[in-house]
Design goal:
Strand order of the largest sheet: 1-2
Largest sheet: 2 strands, antiparallel
Helix content: over 70%
Order of helices and strands: HHHHEEHHHHHHHHHH
Bound molecules: geranylgeranyl diphosphate
Length: about 300
């Protein structure tokens, strides 16, 4: 097992999957727009439809297919619910009361173009919309009402105080503070890891995978999530705001990162180790999925 590239055509998989995700997001936002004021709907479109990697929804549809689900519009609509939560988190993260960022995904952050109050409402509107979306899409995929509720519950728990919101809170409290290894892991397991780990789990659940496979997918997502965050810190320390399409840097915010705590070389090694753990979890669970393998490697090999 290694974190080196395989012959799997990840670029083609990413392109195909992104096209499905973009189309699903368009449908979901068109459905949501009539319930929002036009200014809020415009801010939602700015935050959600800007050019992101779409990694969370792609993990979800990739796991869905790996578990025997038949990919189609409803699978992408389930996956879109993860991107709605992710997009809201970026919109709120950029607000002056949080990271105060001007640039996101290579263009002005949502509040820079649509104002702070509108961005707060746009982000907040996406949270219940995502939960309803996850449930609706899970039902459309043939799941029972009870199981569809469980799938939406996985998304909301990952987004909530025990997950992303809790991690962001720890992150805000930690600005300017030195963190030890355990505190750093705990923060990122929630802030970034929880949603990334929920993504393949939701895909597997929607496809009706067995319990041991769901456990494997969740562990895979946790390993990938850690590798992704460490790589984020490495990129933040080594690339310009223009290349990354976002600001301010962790250094400007006086944040402890995997690079400040462990140094660049060890941070890179830890990312590779986390990918290997993710791949080992798939192996143990008997999940043979070249796309999931390649996505884990992409989490550390990416350049933005
Ligand atoms: C009220 C405390 C409180 C929290 C609200 C704002 C918020 C919830 C959470 C912020 C979570 C956050 C910003 C996590 C960062 C995760 C991360 C590494 C984002 C970058 O992800 P990419 O690289 O971005 O996948 P793209 O743009 O490609 O989608």
């Amino acid at each position: 097992m290694s974190a080196e590239a395989t012959s799997y055509d990840l670029e083609a998989h990413l392109a195909r999957s992104r096209a499905g995700v973009e189309a699903a997001l368009e449908r979901v936002l068109a459905d949501l727009a009539p319930r929002l004021s036009p200014v809020v709907a415009a801010a939602v479109r700015h935050g959600v439809l800007s050019e992101g990697k779409r990694l969370r929804p792609i993990l979800c549809v990739s796991a869905f297919s790996a578990c025997g689900g038949r990919s189609g519009p409803a699978a992408f609509e389930l996956a879109a619910s993860l991107e709605m939560i992710h997009a809201y988190s970026l919109m709120h993260d950029d607000l002056p009361s949080m990271d105060d960022a001007d640039l996101r995904r290579g263009r002005p952050s949502t509040h820079r173009e649509h104002g702070e109050g509108v961005t707060m409402r746009a982000g907040a509107a996406l949270i219940p919309a995502a939960a309803l979306q996850a449930r609706r899409a899970s039902l459309a995929l043939g799941n029972s009402a009870e199981w569809a509720g469980e799938i939406a519950g996985v998304l909301m728990r990952a987004a909530g105080a025990g997950g992303m919101v809790g991690g962001q809170w720890l992150d805000l409290l930690a600005e300017g503070e030195a963190l030890d290894e355990e505190a750093l892991d705990g923060l990122h397991e929630r802030k970034t890891g929880a949603l990334l780990a929920a993504a393949p789990l939701m895909g597997g659940m929607a496809a009706g995978a067995e319990g041991h496979v769901l456990d494997a997918l969740h562990l895979y997502g946790r390993g990938l999530g850690l590798a992704f965050q460490i790589t984020d810190d490495v990129l933040d320390a080594t690339q310009s705001a223009e290349t990354l399409g976002k600001n301010p840097s962790d250094a400007a915010l006086a944040k402890a990162t995997y690079v400040t705590v462990h140094g660049l070389a060890e941070a890179r090694e830890r990312a590779v180790g986390a990918v290997e753990r993710a791949l080992a979890a798939l192996d143990r669970g008997g999940v043979d999925a070249p796309a999931l393998d390649a996505l884990a490697r992409y989490a550390v090999g990416r350049d933005n």
